[in-house]
Amino acid sequence: MAQRKDPVSVGFAFSLGHSSVVILAGVMVVGGASLVGHLRGWAKETSATPDCG
Asked: How far is CA 10 from CA 2, 3, 19, in A?
């Protein structure tokens, strides 16, 4: 049989899980953007194309 739980505790557990996922997604987006920025800078520094500017 299903266990009966207090609706407040179920809502609290859901909110903690949801906020954890949102925070993790935000950290991944910031980390990914930082990585792309570093890779673009590295590619620009190591490019074999002469700078004509």
From this structure: 14, 12, 14
